[in-house]
Amino acid sequence: MTRFEDLPYRPCVGVMLLNRKGLAFIGRRKDGPEHIDEVHVWQMPQGGIDEGEDAWPAALRELYEETNVRSVEKLGEIGEWLTYDIPRDIVGQVWKGRYRGQKQKWFALRFTGNDSEIDIAHPGGGHHKPEFIAWRWEPVANLPRLIIPFKRPVYEEVVKAFAHLV
Hints:
Layout lengths: L8 E10 L4 E7 L12 E2 L2 E3 L6 H13 L4 E6 L4 E4 L15 E11 L20 E8 L3 H4 L5 H11 L4
Parallel strand pairs: 1-7
Antiparallel strand pairs: 1-4, 2-3, 2-8, 5-7, 6-7
């Protein structure tokens, strides 16, 4: 078995989707070995970058596959990759044990559609099971306290980087 320190980070994108009031979309995750309680089950849309895919198209794809949303305008992007490690005790349960965590490229998008466009039960793309069982608009400042603790430093960086867009 590969040592934790030698495992690579999974390339990933994250999306802070902001509505016209400056609130961020968050979804309640269905399940996962990393969930520790009922408070820290909320997150912004995110997902892996496919082989040969650039980060921006991956962000649009992941947003569509998780929320059905296509009506967006790009507001910003964090230039560097943000990383987090998953807890060592769940490494074998996540991504088949191939990664120590994720390196994420984050984008801020303005949602220009109506809330009726959001459909977490039947998201776009047709090949994914729904990832969220509920969603809501949340003040951006609240996001770090709603995410699982090991991802909190990344969320703090994202909130800080995009605060001027709210």
